[in-house]
Amino acid sequence: MGRSFAVLCARPGEMGPMFQKQHHTALELAGQLILLLSAIVALIHGLKIYPPELVYVTKTTPVALLALLALINIKSVDHAILFFALAISALADYLIAQPTVDAFMNGLLTFLVVQIIYIFLFLKNRLPAKDVTPMRLRLASLMWAMTILAIFVMYPDLDSESYNVVIYSFSLTAMATAALISRFPFTMVGVGAVLFYISDSLIGAQQFMNAPDYLGYIVWATYYVAQVLITLGVLIGKGPNRGIRY
């Protein structure tokens, strides 16, 4: 009661920090709930414990909620760019879930836009050349070697889709490379981008090679974790944690 009376009697300038703290606490709580709900729906989709008619919901909602998480935490241009990348990712997830022959290619071309946005975001925040460690360069080189090898192996079976797949493969590898040389936390954004690369590489194996059915579980798990890590890494930023606690 005494504290409430003190708040009411305080001058406007004195009330700002208190309300600001309450606002940040509410924002963090909302973010935690959004992230938890996103993870729950992602688990439901990954384990396929949903009615078939809800596949569009379970496929699209997890990353759509990550986009919402980015939206309510926008404090910079980087955060806004992240929001657009996640929103378009959710659209791509929806397109891939469509029961049409063009679903895969429509989703792939939409994800191409996502990769371009991520490349721009990561290069905008690139490290100085002297700070790029040999380990990051070796990891990037390994991904480029694997991409080129995969294209040579799969190319005879791609037919008319070959050009789109090749362009996407190069953009995916470029995105992961850009993430590895960015200022964002390596253990989040760098690892997330590599997981994104692994997930989409496995999708290629599913589509164009004789891959086991269980690969689909790994594809979804690596993709979702990748988007979560990239989201949190970009929101936390290039320096110490700035009040975002998840």
UniProtKB/TrEMBL annotation:
Q: Per the record's keyword annotation, is Transmembrane included, yes or no?
A: yes
Q: Where are the transmembrane segments?
A: 25-47, 53-72, 79-97, 103-123, 135-156, 162-181, 188-208, 214-236
Q: PANTHER family from the xrefs?
A: GH04784P (PTHR31885)
Which family does the record assign? Belongs to the TMEM86 family.
Give compartment(s).
Answer: Membrane
Q: What is this protein called?
A: Lysoplasmalogenase
Query: In Gene Ontology terms, what is one molecular function of this protein?
Result: hydrolase activity
Enumerate the InterPro entries for this protein: TMEM86B-like (IPR012506)
Please provide the record's keywords in A-Z order: Membrane, Transmembrane, Transmembrane helix
The domain of life for this entry's organism is: Bacteria
Q: Which GO terms describe its cellular component?
A: membrane
Annotated membrane topology: Multi-pass membrane protein
Q: Does the keyword Transmembrane apply?
A: yes
